[in-house]
Write a structure and sequence with these properties.
three-stranded antiparallel β-sheet, Ser/Thr_kinase_AS, 387 residues, protein serine/threonine kinase activity, Transferase(Phosphotransferase), domain 1, elongated, 30% helix, alpha+beta, EC 2.7.11.1, six-stranded antiparallel β-sheet
Amino acid sequence: MRAPSGYQLAARYRLMEPVGRGGMGTVWRARDELLDRDVAVKEVRLPLVLDEELRAELCARTEREGRATAMVAHPSVITVFDVITEDERPWIVMELLKAQSLEEIVKQEGPLDPRHVADIGRQLLGALRAVHAKGILHRDVKPSNVLVTQDRTVLTDFGLAALEGDVSLTQAGIVLGSAGYIAPERVLGDKASPAADLWSLGATLYTAVEGRGLHGRRSAAAALAALTSGAPIPMERAGPLAPVLRGLLQIDPAVRLDAVRAAVLLARIAAGGSGEDLSPQPHRPIRPQASTAVPTAPRRPQHRGQHRAEPRPAPGVAPRSYPRDPQDSGPHQTRSYPQNPRRPAEGVHRKPTGPTRHHSVGVPVIQRLVQVIAMVLPRRYRPKKLK
């Protein structure tokens, strides 16, 4: 039963007059007596076939998802102020806009310009992407739920957002929505999905640009029968919008135009471009470019564990001469001592890879000792073998 005018909701919102009616409820212009402002109140009417337990469950879901919708901050999403359960049904309090619905505009002006419709669709698609990101499905996108102001296009009436996808509803055989705007998979009993909202968006834009509903059918079953017959969708005024509408109105959700590509194409059409580029771009192999030889500086060899480069041969130095001891006798006036060459392993930090060998004292060492004795002892004190 519909509430009467003057009814006070939640001891705060006074219902003034209805501003819209639909199959699932009535939208009221109401007065928020606490904040002294005008608001819109959606009175949701649940199907009479539902039992009390299911009605209570759906009311709770409406409150929960209504509050989630209130968290979506997007200029094309109606602002939800409050969700109330009273008289065993949910009520949704929203902002009140001075606007006309898209349905009223089409009835007054007839088919709209394709580029204007593309701009409306671009804003509506932004709203759907925002609510889908929150896990919310609208489930009732249609021209009467689209409000058009001078500078905004707003998607409103989220009254069915919590009433679809429920197991109890599916078992009861109830499909909520508006005939002619329900996606084919939902008519067949499949679960609602973001792709279903995109199909409803395509049907809404089709009505706006063609001036009539899809196939002119009044029931969802008749529209589904026309779609599955294989006959092409008639488009006389869509112009550049026709490829986008065909992509959104695909029967199979798997091949339906996705939200990202649809947003790009709608923005392009609204700016004066074309919407023909729907197929993915073919893969083009990258041609190898001719490499240009760039001279590089020669790299210095790496010296692992060495502080010096390859050892350079020491310059030849004449042996130094020392004066002969005056007490010495013999034909030699000076003595020459050999210069010790640098060891080849000097400056190398590596350890030998092989096993360590202990060198025994051999003949060369004895000869060097003899040379040292010859330098220290005078000739007269030397052994006979050293004289």
